[in-house]
Amino acid sequence: MSARARERPGQHDVAHPAWTLVMSVAASSLSFIDGSILNVALPAIRADTGAGAAEVQWVVNAYTLPLAALILLGGALGDHQGRRRWLVIGTVLFGIASLVCALAGSLQTLLAGRALQGVGAALLLPNSLALLNGAYSGEARGQAVGTWAAAGAISAAIAPLAGGWLVQQFGWPSIFYVNIPFVGVAIVIALTRVEEVSDPGSARLDLGGAALATLGLGAATYGLTLWSQTFALSTLAGGAIAAGLALLVAFGLYERRLGDKAMVPLSLFGNRCFTSLNLMTFLLYGAFGGAMLLIPFTLIEAGGYSPVEAGLALLPLSILIGGASRMMGKLAEKIGPRWPLTIGPIIVGIGLALASRLAESQSYWTHAFPAILVMSTGMALAVAPLTSTVLASVSRHQTGMASGLNSALSRLGGLIIVALLGAVLVAQGDALLRPFAMALRMMGVVAALGGVAAFFGLSGNWRHADSGTETV
User: Fold this and answer.
1) Which positions make up the signal peptide (predicted)?
2) Which of 103, 110, 295, 430 qualifies as a FRET site for 350, CA 20 to 30 Å off?
3) What is the C-alpha separation between 11 and 134, in angstroms, rounded?
4) Residues 6+ apart with CB under 8 A from 142
5) Are 399 and 391 in contact (CB under 8 A)?
């Protein structure tokens, strides 16, 4: 049997790459929408459930934790047993979890539903993109991935506005019902119009590593969440952090023992460029993810915005990032990725510092919009060349692993930053503004440090000789 196996059931004689594109957009939109729509609903969830700061943090992180920890395993399961199969399983789980969240009668049930959503996303996201990459080749593949990315940007742009309207008209549970049509479309197309693909030769079914990573990140995140509310290290918080660090050290040792069969081959980090780019990803996306939680939360809680107005306030962000990314990508092709990946995160840091000026009864156009404009410019400058540069820094046979790990680290950055925001989220009204401003300035520094990491990592000859990548 060949390393790359395909199954083509009788009903797939009408299969066409366009169906795979539609399916990939529908499936991946679940994650794009969910990540954007929830932030404008958090104040309503807090008010309705009586959630404290830690619970608000876990409404976000109960989803991000399994997504960050299991996304590489999700891709390996698809390689080994069939990408369409695991995409469908992940999409079904996401749909069931969305219903659990919508019908949740308690905060505990909501958190369980969010965790199940994270597991579903970890299964569907890597297999969605892998199926799309396999359905096209050459220039058509680039156009298809561009369409997929544009659809994600549009979904992320519309989601906060739609979410704000739904929260205002029907309450926060309604935001989870939005996922159901996308679930139905993705499953029907996958089962009737998309052929099965597997690549068992490249699969890394590292169940032990996945378990250690999940438990370690979970314990560390729990401890950081408890500590961040008062910055006093209680016995429980200290014990959880220590246990998490011990499990993560065990994860590193376990991965080193597995070598090239590991979920995360540690040999990749011997590459200076690859390591620095992933550090940049961790810092930049962590800071940006934290800001995308705090800005709408503060606009509603302290700025007097309605959920719809908060959604409208964020609308230019995704539009500007999506619209400028193509132009910034062409710029990076002409001058190389070093300066865009250095300057972009620094500009994001400046935008975050500008956003710290938000306060009650201010004009959107003089305070919020300039910050959003600057952040959008910086993100567009950095995001466009990032993936292609990461892939060009490793050998051809490592590109799938490199892409998956970079994606996981972008989620992990947000996971850690959100876990550290307890002191901000515990405040209400005007009392929220001072810790919000401090947090935004600190996240601005974190984002700028990502640019410094890229500057030093991309010095000299950074491209791998066997990358097979001509441009960045």
Assistant:
1) none
2) 430
3) 19
4) none
5) yes
CB contact at 8 A, 379 and 318: no
Domain 269-472 has CATH 3.40.640.10: no
Report the CATH superfamily, name and number, of domain 9-191: MFS general substrate transporter like domains (1.20.1250.20)
Q: Return d(Cα 17, Cα 132) in angstroms, integer.
A: 8
**Dihedral of CA 420/405/29/364: which sign?**
positive
DSSP secondary structure string for all residues of 397-412:
GGHHHHHHHHHHHHHH
Listed by start position, the domains of the chain span 9-191, 205-262, 269-472
Per-residue model confidence as pLDDT tens digits over 107-133: 999 999 999 999 999 999 888 888 887
Q: Which helix (H) or strand (E) holds 196?
A: strand 196-198
Three-state DSSP class for residue 356: coil
Residues 6+ apart with CB under 8 A from 330: none
* Tokens 């990946």, located at residue: 341
Can you tell me the distance from the alpha carbon of 425 to that of 54, in angstroms, rounded to the nearest whole number?
8
Q: Dig out the tokens for 437 from the structure.
A: 């401003």
CA-to-CA distance for 395 and 4, rounded, in angstroms? 19
Full-prediction pTM beyond 0.90?
Answer: no
Cβ-contact 306, 168 below 8 angstroms: yes
* Burial of 207: CB neighbours in 10 Å, binned 0-12, 13-18, 19+: exposed
- DSSP per residue over 71-87, as a string? HHHHHHHHHHH-HHHHH
